[in-house]
Amino acid sequence: MQNADLSIKKDDIDLFENLTDSEFLELKDLFHYKKYKKGAFIIAENDMVKHVYFIRSGLVKLSYFDDDNKEFILSFAQENWWETDFPAFYNQTKSSLTLQCIEDTETYGLSFDDYTAILDKHSLSKYFLEKSIKGHIANQNRILSLLKHKPKEQYEQFLQLYPSLLQRIPKSVLCLYLGISRETLSRLYKTR
């Protein structure tokens, strides 16, 4: 992880769009810029989760590892998305998930205390509620897809929802996300 003195601009995060210039100036120093190399963990299992992360650039995966160290990928987050281990962040507990960079990634981290303070003081609850609802809907749709669809349909749905990610995600990582073998993914690539 590398820290840099990168001054945040009003158009860096859509959160700032409806703020006055004085509100932006008051809030901008609460967001802490960090740069991570490909493969680095932003959150490792059992870390205290003190931040929610806005992805300025790059791509990350949120994963769970079972007792046999088998990885299950819950989600990806790319530019202009927010990500963290949300249960651990909201409850201020240790992470049961990992957040790892698939590409070199730049983030703006917002601490839990600053997050709760700006919700109250700057009426940003609506912004974060909308983001949370969209994330919740995406997670429910993913669960339903896993329950209802065969691998080919899951793959097609992924392509439809996230076409730009296909070239950015290694095939082995996409297999983990879809819960399929490398051979099955190769067959699906050929049928496209």
Question: Could you explain the architecture of this structure?
Answer:
The strands form 2 sheets. Strands 1-2-9-4-7 form a 5-stranded antiparallel beta sheet. Strand 5 and strand 6 form a beta hairpin. It has 192 residues and is α+β, with helices and mostly antiparallel strands. The model has no long low-confidence stretch (mean pLDDT 90). The chain is globular. It is built from 7 helices and 9 strands; from the N terminus they run E-H-E-E-E-E-E-E-H-E-E-H-H-H-H-H. It has a domain of 121 residues: Jelly Rolls (Sandwich). InterPro entries: cNMP-bd_dom, cNMP-bd_dom_sf, RmlC-like_jellyroll. It holds the Pfam family cNMP_binding.
Ends distance: 38 Å
Strand content: 15-25%
Largest sheet: 5 strands, antiparallel
CATH architecture of the domain at 2-122: Sandwich
| SS-based class | alpha+beta
GO molecular function, one term: kinase activity
Protein name: cAMP-binding domain of CRP or a regulatory subunit of cAMP-dependent protein kinases
Pfam family, one: cNMP_binding
Organism: Pontibacter chinhatensis
Features:
192 residues; alpha+beta; Jelly Rolls; five-stranded antiparallel β-sheet; four-stranded antiparallel β-sheet; 39% helix; 24% strand; globular
Break the fold down into its secondary structure elements and pairings.
Elements: E1 2-3, H1 21-27, E2 31-36, E3 41-43, E4 51-57, E5 59-65, E6 71-78, E7 82-83, H2 86-91, E8 98-101, E9 105-111, H3 112-121, H4 125-148, H5 151-161, H6 171-178, H7 182-190
Protein name: cAMP-binding domain of CRP or a regulatory subunit of cAMP-dependent protein kinases
Pfam families: cNMP_binding (PF00027)
GO molecular function: kinase activity
